[in-house]
Amino acid sequence: MADLNCGVVDIAEWSSKPLSDPVDLVKPVHLVVIQHSATAPCSDDETCKTLLSNVREKHVERLKFKDIGNSFYISSHGKVYEGSGWHVGAHTKGFNDKSIGISFIGDFRDSLPSEEALKAAQDFLSCSVNNESLDENYDLVGHGQLSATLSPGAKLQSLIQSWSHWREKLIQ
Q1: What is the pTM of this model?
Q2: For the residues 81-99, what does the mean pLDDT come to?
Q3: How far apart are CA 168 and CA 172, in angstroms?
């Protein structure tokens, strides 16, 4: 039987609060935006839960987002955590209602995510295609290709440019 959840740690497992008024994305989603959290990394469940709770609080309290911005977050120990999930997020202005934002937890300007994190991302993307949540011909870009930001960091941006779905320019 297929893992319909693709091994994602549900938001209910790391937060006591459900998403605030989630709006479903139209599936299959055609665009994946790779980002980094620009925070410390995390490599165990407790640290990741605390970090994600702090990110969520910052998004709501300081940035005035409706809820946590990114769709999914990937830890150094290769776990994928649900953020806004398959709902409209607040990760890339102008693209939130037609994409998912996958944020590697950490700062990847000068280093790469762990092998476990990179494998988790690839596995999640493949599973999401198999489950028809993600279009089999999806486009993948780095956050900085769509917004004035250093995210996902130079090292990570360089790496994702070798991934099969990466696009230099989006055709809209």
Answers
A1: 0.95
A2: 96
A3: 13
Q: What is the pLDDT of residues 91-111, one digit of tens each?
A: 999 999 999 999 999 999 999
Give tens-digit pLDDT for 47-64: 999 999 999 999 999 999
- H/E stretch holding 47 reads helix 45-57
- Fold (topology level) of 23-160: Lysozyme-like (3.40.80)
How far is residue 59's CA from residue 156's CA, in Å, rounded to a whole number?
Answer: 23
What pLDDT score does 87 carry? 97
DSSP 23: -
Contact 146, 92 (CB under 8 A): yes
pLDDT at 1: 39
CB 59 within 8 A of CB 17: no
Closest CA to 131 of 85, 84, 64, 78: 85
Instruction: Enumerate the domain spans of the chain.
Output: 23-160
157, two tokens: 């941006």
Match 């998912």 to its residue by tokens. Answer: 100
Which amino acid would we find at residue 159? L
Dmax of the chain from CA atoms?
42
